Amino acid sequence: MRRPSPAVLTLAGLATVVAALAPVAPAAADHRAQPPATVTLVGNLQDEVGCPEDWAPACEASGLERLPDGSWELLAEVPAGTYGYKVAVNGSWQENYGAGGAAGGPDLPLVLEHPARLRFTYDDASHRIAVAPAEQPSAKPTKVDRELAGTSLRGPLTRENFYFVMADRFANGDPTNDTGGLSGDRLTTGLDPTDKGFFHGGDVQGLSDRLDYIADLGTTAIWLTPSFKNRPVQGAGADASAGYHGYWVTDFTQIDPHFGTNAELEAFIDEAHGRGIKVFFDIITNHTADVIDYEEKQYGYVSKQDEPYRDAAGNEFDDRDVVGSPDFPELDAATSFPYTPVFRSEADRTVKVPAWLNDPTNYHNRGDSTFAGESSTYGDFVGLDDLFTEQPDVVDGMTDIYEAWVDLGIDGFRIDTAKHVNMEFWQEFAPAIREHAASVGNDDFFAFGEVYDADPAYLSTFSTEGRLDATLDFGFQSVGTGFAKGGATTRLRDFYAADDWYTDADSNAYASPTFLGNHDMGRIGTFLKGTGSELERDRLAHALMFLTRGQPVVYYGDEQGFVGDGGDKDAREDMFPSKVASYNDNDLIGTDATTAQANYDTSHPLYRTIRGLADLRRDHPALADGAQLHRYASSDAGIFAFSRIDADERREHLVALNNATTAKTVTVGTEMRRSTFRQVWPAGRSSLRTDAEGRTTITVPPLSAVVWRATGRLPGRAEAPAVQFQKPSAGGTVGGRAPITVGVPDGGFNQVTLAWRPVGADAWTTLGTDDNAPYRVFHDVRTLAKGSLVEYRAVLRDSSGNLSVASTYAVVGDPEAEPTPGGGGTGGPVTQPGAVSMPGSHNAEIGCPGDWQPDCAEAQLSLDPQDLVWKRTVSLPAGGYAYKAAIDGSWDENYGVGGAPGGGDVPLVLDAPRDVTFYYEHGSHWVTTDANGPIVTLAGSMQSELGCAGDWAPDCMRGWLKDPDGDGTFTFTTTALPAGSYATKVAHGLSWDENYGDGGAAGGADIAFDVPATGVEMVFTYDVATHRLTVSSRAAGAAPELSKAKAKWLRDDLVAWDVPDAASRRYRLHWSQAGDLGVDAEAVTGGSSVPLTYDPAGLPDDVLADFPHLAGHEAFRLDRAAVRKVPEILTGQLAVASYDPGGTLHDATGVQVPGVLDDVYADAAEADLGPTWRGNRPTLTLWAPTAQDVATVVAGRRVAMDRRRDGTWTVSGPASWKGAAYTFEVTVWSPAAGEVVTNRVTDPYSVALTTNSERSLLVDLADPALAPAGWARTTPPVVAQPEDRNVYELHVRDFSIGDETVPAAERGTYLAFTRDDSAGMRHLRRLADAGLNTVHLLPAFDIATIEERRSAQQTPACDLASLPPDSTEQQECVDAVRTEDGFNWGYDPLHYTTPEGSYSTDPEGPRRTVEFRRMVQGLNASGLQVVMDVVYNHTAASGQDPKSVLDRIVPGYYHRLNASGAVETSTCCSNTATEHRMMEKLMIDSVLTWARDYKVNGFRFDLMGHHSLENMTRLRAALDGLTVKRDGVDGKAIYLYGEGWNFGEVADDARFTQATQRNLAGSGIGSFSDRLRDAVRGGGPFDEDPRVQGFGSGLFTDPNGAAVNGSADEQRAELLHLEDLVKLGLAGNLADFRFTSSATGEEVVGSEVDYNGQPAGYAADPAETVTYVDAHDNETLFDSLAFKLPQGTSMEDRVRMNTVSLSTVALSQGVVFWHAGTDLLRSKSLDRNSYDSGDWFNRVDWQRRENTFGSGLPLRADNEAKWDFMRPLLADSALDPTPAAMDAAHARAQDLLRIRTSSRLFRLGDLDAIQAKVSFLDTEPGVIAMLVDDTVGADVDADRDGVLVVFNATPEATTVTGAGAGWSLHDVQASGTDAVVKGSTVAADEVTVPARTTAVFER
């Protein structure tokens, strides 16, 4: 079938699809079962490659061959022509691909100027087609390359020193010509020396007379303002002015009589030539004097669209169609123009010379220019007659005029108003003048144009396209002045980086005349007014001009310190004694003289400076036009450094200028290694020495320039460095003026010639030669057809003449698209969400039903399509609020403080009612309001490029400066700005009412900045305190920032850093013991540095084994010399930096050091840290390897400590130190502080502390004084195996703070456990008698968040008991004091190895040690072992926080850091890193101390999954090493368990093999099982609706009606699944346990049962499973049942369900774990997180008189979202347990313990026994029947053949069959207090159990 599109693609069609050739993201691959049978190239080129017709998908001749790698290829000879093509698959149109790999996509264009052999390729994964030349040019230099290799041009002129002089104002050598030969008053003669707008008398003779003065300045070329005869006076009245300046020409053939005669001029030229000085004429081709008037007496510009030109016959035409053509039509002055040209007088008809200038049809006649658009070249320049330069006769006429002046001996032209003349004029005029000059012997004739613009992309077109030799460098004037005024020197860097725009085959930027001021814009002295140190700045400006590339232009009078009052007439002072009052009152720079006297003072400091600089350029020509290689620039005032190298001399000059008012020191690179540079400016004898890398450190005095010259030449090279194409990449797209760029990774001084040719051609066409990196030229491909295939060649010539080459190819298409900025954002497109809201505590105030409602309509923001910022304005009353941003109406995606995902609430405080506007930007996720601080925007000339509707619009937020971290520094970053020059200001409040300009001045001047290249990242930084805006640029994607630490130092010689394209840059490790490293624009400053070498082999396997999360990071090596310095380096601030081959900073970051510290100081793991004792003499040892100094302050006296090789510091003291308080003084670099600090810290190994942990105490735990009576004989009750443990989780303060049976002073303390007769202890003994054997204490180490002084602890100032049960008042009262009260769970460790002081009757001193030991004794005596809850996974604080200990000793070591070096906080707090050796040591040493010195019998590890399995197994081994004989304890009997959760930055073993549930299998270490917990309770801890039911709360069998539970069928299915989880839990949650699934009826193993996408069974041994249904976290069991059971459930039934739930724990094979009080229906008034809820919500009454339920709504922060669920429950008095209910629950709980301990069948101890004996019988939903059969396998219980446990969680009695005969109700239950369970019955092969009952049968 023929393709249904045209057979031949037109060029217009090519244009529409060529953009598809640009690189785009790969298409998604199709997953074919088999590759295509055929792939065919189809298009209108098929008949050219052997097919019978075009567009034939079945033609074999154009078929591609499948290659071994799976790609497809066709080699074909293709004739010259224009084509379109695509591919067809399997021989038909059914599957075809075009541009971009799109199915059925547009044809790809191909244009060949020559026949060529091409390679077409196709990738079936992306469906992309590509074309390339079949043969690539030689990879080695050829003869053609040697001929092609050029040098960077230096001609015709590049070494001139211009003196720009206005003849009328310089010197009056002949007073007789002052009137120009005219008679009359000033309006006739033009002479009035008192008026700055009239002739003053200067002339050519005066120039001749003062030629010595000019020559002695070092001048080599004089540029004269126009000298042609002018109309003497123009204008009338106050607007009258004379033509003294020369720009109102009437006669182009003679000089103005006011200046002299042509003969005098010729004599002056000869005299100048005799002194070696060239003479340049300022010429005009754009206009003449204002002679022509318009008959209409209207002068506004009329466009060609409104009034086209008409030829003499009246036909409309567009002059652009015939520009410069001999076919240009004849014109009629009366009819051809929009205005009718007329003359004001008869004399005016012939006033112009040559005569052709009097023809009015030679002018545009369109009115005055607006200097924009078309009018810029067609409009009259302020009324001056604008020549019709598009006419060939005008071109010829002007050429003839100026050829005559060439004949006179003029050496060159400065061409006025060149930008206002059409480009075609210059293309004819400039070559013609050069050719004529050459014909008369002037081969160096030089013409440069005035193009008043600073954009090099535009300026350069006049030399590259317009064929002028150069243009005046207005860009330099802008940046040079800014530099002299103290601007960032990066502006200079960026300015010179754009020089490549000028490079072509016959010109470059080295020829550009550079200047600081002129007769139009004003003087440099004017611009420097008010800056202070004007003379020094003026000198500095001239130094910059003379020492940088280009040809300096000194504007007459600047050398005498002239300052002027502004531009134009104010900048045209007299050098001879002036009579102009406004000149004479100026305060000149560097002199006491005024313009009222002659100013030819050759001793003037500026004259001498300029003369010296000119001499320097003469003596060292490299400084004039040697290659300029960038070395350094600063992001603020500071050093600008560069090298100048003459390619022939091959000697490097290093130049550095400092525009700061203080001396600056930097390190720069050179081409000279281990070489000497001697200072040549200012003259002196100082020298520099470079290192092995060619680097040297230079210091430049303030406002000064220094030049050094190498004593030797560039070293020879054996071969040229490799050159690589960067743009375009092979097959890339070129468009417009396309950058053709190559890189030279090895650097060096090179010259790179770039050339191109159409594919198929033989000859290369040179584009230009560049001599400094980045090596780049711009190829103008606008005249090439889109789709043209072109090749590029780069030929590098190094400093020794060696060559290297590279090639690439590209297709002509559209220019690279500019990136589109996101809303107020940083550069890339931002995909906006569907909705954004601002939920917060203000929502009710704006009409929402409640607060914190992300789906409330009134809280929704609207997207402003102009800004791409979401906004909403609301009215709010005064008050304190908080808010966040929520995406798409839910909490699933939300952003808080700083734009952090799920971040903290953003505070909002309003002192008075007001309108508040909320703003949210999705690119940065920043949410704020105009009440949180100013809304700050950039308003400037770049806003339209950012996407604003217009420029200078402060209300457009595309340039929104943001301050997410609230530090007062607002930033905006973008890559969206095209190359060019711009200006901006800072606006507050989206208006001009408050705005800041240059220097932070209110309403100040515009802030100019340059964008050096498209795609560069521009960074705008605004300091709200000073109002100063800094603008800097950096490579896109790079963000040098030392406050972050993205590099990781892993071994003494190895650093890891994740960087792109690592081989293309160079790297250094920087350090400073002074902590003064900083990021300047181009370097890391301060300190010292050593090189880092990129290791392409990557990180070794052993390193990746230690740091698996660093896979993908690049490896960098230190050399041996640097390794020897490592201990020194580690004691300072650190940074690594990447530099481009030219030495410019690309990126920099701080360094994470834990890896290297572990490597270098591995021996420290064996050290005894903290206080140790030898007899009665103490020794203090602190590990502080990065510290610069450490001392201890003991008893108020500072004592120095000695550093050891292992990084420890130690000091021994006398016996008198015993009991003394001490701290350490650690002097160390602190990343958090950003400086070297001296921290006063306590000992992380403290064993005793003063109150509130202010100081450590020198205490020996072996001191008999600290041992309570009988301590040595204290032994715990025996727990034979972990499965025998029945654990009761208890909080020290909770236990007794409300127990009136404990003495008041001892309530809430350790000593309460010694009161045998207290209610609490009686409660514990009852449970112990029943079988409880372990008390688990919540954290009892030193806690950071509890005030230890009882007298200072605050209590709620409310009568809490009197408030309603569902009130918010209780939580408000508790919340008001909770940070100052005496309660906290204690998961905020401060010192790991000291008992908490608030639990002691005296926190001052070691009494807490004694009392803790007495508590252990009391519990042991009651039959209870002691387990401590330990929290080694985090600390309460980090950084410089006063509560931070570890991080203020070894900053950045003890905590786990994220990729950027910030402390990870997934644990809620500052995560520690026990994978680091010394943190692991601290943990193990601490645990061993508690075990050995406090006789703690077990340890529960908080968030144990954040520790490694290796941590835990090493700890296990260390504990196993404790013996009764040596240590007083049996370490092997100590049990370890913890929370094996898998989350956070370590999840899924990202950093190490974690101690998580699954990984702990086989370790013997226990972990909490959330499987049974969730199955029994229902749902999970974080359900939005807390009414999700489970097995123990009535799912399906007793539904509560909540929709969240689903339909009846859904509930039944879920219940059966939950039963599987309960069964598995009852069997110890063993991974390999086999049982019959309730859900499927099939046999499964534990690991096959699903738990939220994870294997439910994970343990290898039941000792590894801690079984529980409630703990301190989340709601208590009773509170959970309050949510989940139907509200009408009776209290009796609630008691029963409480018991059923507890029974699943008590009768399981794992370790039993109960939360304290769960046995007596403990409530926390529904609080899900009571960690800081005070005594009120955490209290428990062991006497069972009152329950805490109904104590008010719990704290807002964690519970408010569920308050609506809570209110009706708390208000229901029927849900408040009575004493009788609590008594019943307590009794039944004891029965469960008795049952468990009655038989070992509940504690079988291993998988084999459990698998053999435990099974489950068939039951109804909601019932589980567990049979433990002791007749199978080894006999475990001699008294029983088995037990049968029926868990009936349903509201109906149940009968279980198949159980066999011989059962009887367990004796405990049969004799117990539960009458209901006694109703259980036994029949043949079945048992019946009452509703909501767990019955245990035995036989």
TrEMBL record:
InterPro entries cross-referenced by the UniProt entry: A-amylase/branching_C, GH, GH13_cat_dom, Glyco_hydro_13_N, Glyco_hydro_b, Ig-like_fold, Ig_E-set, Pullul_strch
Keywords: Signal
Domain Glycosyl hydrolase family 13 catalytic: 164-617
One Pfam family recorded for the sequence: X25_BaPul_like
Protein origin, superkingdom: Bacteria
Keyword match Signal: yes
Span of the signal peptide: 1-27
Protein family per UniProt: Belongs to the glycosyl hydrolase 13 family.
NCBIfam families: pullul_strch (TIGR02103)
Protein's UniProt name: Pullulanase-type alpha-1,6-glucosidase
Species in which this protein is naturally found: Nocardioides pinisoli
Lineage: Bacteria, Bacillati, Actinomycetota, Actinomycetes, Propionibacteriales
Gene this protein is translated from: pulA
